[in-house]
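Example for tutorial group B:
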């Protein structure tokens, strides 16, 4: 809550709304003081007459207990953060393990550019829109490799996939389809 209060932008708010965070801050200070006083066994309510050393000792003991509780809470939060980091690492590892065998980003870029060239030629030669031609090319690939998305083609079939697209392009145009250059693959 204190971090939120510090970030509240009161410049565009009405005067009443501008005073609410200030009121909340003062209320919080009074409540913390009252909690420490209750814990120490001191009289409730505002008092400036803490003159007895016993009262000061009780106040100090209460603050020490609060500090110990805070330390315990922080240690617990550190353990929770570490557990979260461990789980996050495990999830990332599982994601990487399940992604193994799929086309890499660079391989997907190569396939994408080859299909774009194939689709362009198909649209021109079959006199259909580029969208229709590209959908047909992608559909052919997905059917051939039995996947719902081309990104799911297994990496072991990458060379076969490239050769297949090049053969289809050559059947269509009579010319060879070259692989895109490295710079062309950056989408």
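The residue assignment follows.
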């Amino acid at each position: 809550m204190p971090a939120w209060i510090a970030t509240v932008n009161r410049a565009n708010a009405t005067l009443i709304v501008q005073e609410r965070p200030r009121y909340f801050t003062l209320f919080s200070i009074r409540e913390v003081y009252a909690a420490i006083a209750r814990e120490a066994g001191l009289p409730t309510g505002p008092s400036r007459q803490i003159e007895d050393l016993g009262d000061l000792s009780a106040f100090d003991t209460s603050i020490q207990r609060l500090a110990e509780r805070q330390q315990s809470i922080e240690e617990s939060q550190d353990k929770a953060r570490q557990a979260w980091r461990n789980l996050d690492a495990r999830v990332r590892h599982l994601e990487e393990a399940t992604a193994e065998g799929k086309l890499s980003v660079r391989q997907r870029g190569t396939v994408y550019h080859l299909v774009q060239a194939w689709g362009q030629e198909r649209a021109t030669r079959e006199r259909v829109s580029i969208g229709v031609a590209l959908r047909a090319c992608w559909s052919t690939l997905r059917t051939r490799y039995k996947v719902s998305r081309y990104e799911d083609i297994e990496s072991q079939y990458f060379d076969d996939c490239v050769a297949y697209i090049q053969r289809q392009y050559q059947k269509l145009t009579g010319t060879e389809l070259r692989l895109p250059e490295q710079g062309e693959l950056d989408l």
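Helices lie at 2-7, 15-40, 53-99, 105-126, 130-145, 158-173. Compare this with the pattern of hydrophobic and polar residues in the output above.
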